[in-house]
Structures are given as structure tokens and as C-alpha cells.
Amino acid sequence: MADLASRITKPDGSAVENTPVVEASPMEASSDTAADAAVSGEAQFDSADAGGPGLHEPDYDVEVSLSALQENEATPFHSATTWEDLNLKPELLKGLQALNFLKPSKVQGKSLPLMLSDPPRNMLAQSQSGTGKTAAFVTAILSRVDFSQPDKPQALVLAPSRELARQIEGVIKAIGRFVENLAIAPAVPGALAPGEPVRMPVVVGTPGRVQDIIRRRQLDVSNLRVLVLDEADNMLDQQGLGDQCMRVRTMLPPEIQVLLFSATFPEKVLNYAMKFAPNAHSLKLQRSELTVKGISQMFIDCPNNEEKYTILCRLYGLMTIGQSVIFVKTRESANIIEQRMTADGHKVSALHAAFEGAQRDELLAKFRSGENKVLITTNVLARGIDVSSVSMVINYDIPMKGRSDDEPDHETYLHRIGRTGRFGRVGVSISFVSDKKSYQGLNKIATHYGIDLVKLDTEDWDDAEEKVKDVIKKNRAQASYAPSATDSQKQAQAAASTS
Ligand SMILES: Nc1ncnc2c1ncn2[C@@H]1O[C@H](COP(=O)(O)OP(=O)(O)OP(=O)(O)O)[C@@H](O)[C@H]1O
């Protein structure tokens, strides 16, 4: 096995020394996993690569960077086509313009013509985190639905968490704001009146709740023509939400167009995905293309568990320059860290699947608005959540999977760090290792993706702080180049608070 040190470089490119590790600490308890979600019936999900196109240059020019990225064919933000080339309805073009989406990204430019071709064909689309997959499938849905029949449900989107479903609802409202008769049913626990028929043209929800409303005949599926699975690899993973999604699928018209989207499609899910969406057009990425260039991936070697907490608190000042997400393994540790940090005078909040729905909506709304800057969470928020001012992600616990949590969870690592570095922005991820298991886990993840992790030396705290601050400041400076993101976040927030 390759050694972590072989994957670790200093920012100047030189190698760093390997560091000693201590023995594994005892396992922790209840995590928010897809399996939890399936059992409860409620979806709970919840390199220092300086090679980016100018993103890491000291004299970084924020104003030109997004358009420069979109000009550069090598980036996922470039598209050979314009929105106008895609033959979209005028009201959708207006919606995209209003969001200041000047040009399609690569996944948008490539997937839309395929999704809109006639006769409709299934699609599997993979693209890095934060590259605009949501707008791609939302634009396809809004193109396909016949809004002159507004009381017939025609499109169904499934997402693994209530937060992601609400966010997608917000994006549909934002892109579709000029569409007459636009209405969306949020099929998440607590959002729909019990027993009341769902008569909106678009339905967005979590698989458990959607299965429920179909079984209770609240949702008439006979006119559904498009089914989207966001985070499809997670949704089709048979150890998690796969069963629920398959049950929903069997209740839908057999000829429905199926669209599968994710940043990751591991081999073991891919075959199953192709059966779920037969004869699909497919846009795939190589493993080496999966990491987002703008995210500086770092790690800290913590002597033990208690030091992890001390180091976390030392990072608090940096966390609050922008916004930060701290990922931990279990709900219990999220609660404990929140309580300890609060007692130590830091303003943080915890969000996980043990909270009740309305409280989850409120906590995320406060984070989106910037009222809360530091969020401690579990894998429930690892996927899809889009808050462009998140400049730092901390993997307090390295994501693991397998029967006894002994294998690193490569996909979850990628999705977690992808909460920063949205649509060409820069961001930092810092992973904590504190024992043999976490050290080896991170090592395997780095090898898997070919990541050059930068080690932050806590012996020289000023230097470590400078390295992180450098990136975060750039993220803050980029706020001006993604006004659209702010808009769609406000929409998402509005969606969550109105229904
Ligand atoms: N064409 C565009 N021009 C400018 N901004 C865009 C464009 N398309 C999407 N965005 C913005 O990019 C951000 C990321 O988009 P989105 O959430 O769809 O990414 P994603 O690929 O679904 O990410 P993830 O894999 O994390 O789910 C959003 O804030 C969105 O508003």
C-alpha cells in the first residue's frame, strides 16, 4: 500500500516526513447513513492542486476568473454551446439569465441536448461537485413538463435528504420563475397535508415519503413522464435507499424517462444503475478527473482524540472568516462537540437526522443566510448541499464504510469536501487523522484519487494558519462572481420556509 507521505506534499512541492500514528480509538455509535434512512422510512441523508486555471496565483483577479474558467476547455465550466443553442423555451432562457447563469457548464451543455432529444431517452450523467448538475436536470424537467395541464403530476425528482429535496425545489422555483402555472409538491416528511391529493406538475421528495404518497393514492403517477434521481449512486446503493427507489420505480409508468445524476458512480453501483435506466446515454468521468481543482485538500495529524478537539477550537477563527462545515461520524459526537464548543464560547450549531423536520429546515436556513457560520453535521449533509460561501470543510472523522467501518468511504469524502469550491470558487478541506485506522483510511482515499494532500504542521501554527487563510480570503473575494448562487439560495430558503 502506498504510504500517505508519498501522497503528501508541501505547497512548494517538496515531500514531507511521515508522522507517527497511535492505535485506533473505540468505535462510535449511531451515524446518519442511507441504511438508517431506509429503516426509518424517512430519507435522512441526510491537493492542494495549484494547477487550477490561475485560481491559486497570488495576484488572483476575481472579476475575470469565472469567465476565464468558462473559456478554458479543460475545465468543467466550459461548454461549446450557449443557452440559446439549446432551443429552450423563452421563459426558461429568461429564468437562467435572471440567475446570471451566463453560459452553460460542461455537464449542462452536454446533457441537455441528450435529455431533450426526441423520443426521450434515459441518461446517466456524472460531473464533479458544484458544476451545475441541478440546473441541468431542472432545465430538462421544466422543458419536458406541459404546464398547460397544471394539475397533472408529470415530473418526479428523488433526493436522499429532505434538505437536498428542499434545495432542488428552490432551484426549480428560481429557474422556472417565469413559467406560468409552475407549482411544486415537496414530498418530504411533514410538508404535505395528510391525505390531500398532490396535484402539482412537479414533485420533489425523498424516496420513503414518495413511496408513501403513491401507496396511499395521494399521488397519481399515471402522467409522470420524467424521473430524476439526484445523487443516484447513493440512491441506488442496495445497502441503503436502493430498495425504496426500486419500489417507487416499479409503481411508475414503465416508459418514463429516467435521469440519473451524481458526482460519483462507483463500479458496483454502475451496473445496477444501467439496469435502472436501460439504454441510457451516459456522460462519465475518469477517476482522475473527479477532484475539484479549486479545493485545497489538507490534513492534520492529531496526536489523539482530545487533541482533535483542541485543534478544532484553534481553527475556529479561520472557520468564521467565511462559513464552515464540520463532518463527524455520529449524531452523538455532533451533539457533544456542539455542546463543548458552545461552552467554550464558540458559536456553532449541529444538524443531523435526529432533529425533527421543521427544526432541520430552520437550522439550514440560518446557515444559508449566514446567521450561523459553523455547522457540525453527519453524512446527512455530505451530498448536494449548495452554500457558495462555505470556504472550509473539516473532516473531523474520516468517512468510513464496510461492516465494521474498516474501509474508507471514497465517495463520501469527495461529496463532503465538495460542499466548498462551488462552481469555480476556491475552498479548503482539512481532514483530521488521529490513529492508525484514520491515517490508513485517508491514505487510501488519497491514493484512490491521486490527491496530493498538504500537511498542516501544528507545531508551526502561524504558518498553518497563513496557508488556510490565504485560500479562504480568495473564496471571500469571489463572492461577487456568483451572484446567482446567492439568489438560488434565497429561493431555496424561501421554499423551505413557505411550505
Ligand atoms: N451555468 C451556470 N452559471 C453560473 N452559476 C451556475 C451555473 N449553473 C449552476 N450554477 C451555480 O453553481 C452552484 C453549484 O451548482 P449545483 O448545486 O447544481 O452543483 P452540483 O453539480 O449539483 O453539485 P453536487 O455534486 O454537490 O450536488 C450553484 O450555486 C448554482 O447556482
Automatic annotation (TrEMBL):
**Start and end residues of each Helicase ATP-binding domain:** 114-283
- Which ranges carry the DEAD-box RNA helicase Q domain? 81-109
Which keywords does UniProt give here? ATP-binding, Helicase, Hydrolase, Nucleotide-binding
Task: Report the GO molecular function annotations.
Answer: ATP binding; hydrolase activity; nucleic acid binding; RNA helicase activity
Composition-biased stretches, type Low complexity, lie in 29-38, 484-499
Q: Which domain of life is it from?
A: Eukaryota
Matching entries from CDD domains are given as: DEADc_DDX19_DDX25 (cd17963), SF2_C_DEAD (cd18787)
Q: Which InterPro entries match?
A: DEAD/DEAH_box_helicase_dom (IPR011545), Helicase_ATP-bd (IPR014001), Helicase_C-like (IPR001650), P-loop_NTPase (IPR027417), RNA-helicase_DEAD-box_CS (IPR000629), RNA_helicase_DEAD_Q_motif (IPR014014)
Q: Which reaction does it catalyse?
A: ATP + H2O = ADP + phosphate + H(+)
Segment Disordered: which positions?
A: 1-59, 477-499
Where along the sequence do coiled-coil regions lie?
none
Q: What is its EC number?
A: 3.6.4.13
Q: Which family does it belong to?
A: Belongs to the DEAD box helicase family.
Return the protein name: RNA helicase
Q: Which organism is it from?
A: Emericellopsis cladophorae
Q: What is the lineage of its organism?
A: Eukaryota, Fungi, Dikarya, Ascomycota, Pezizomycotina
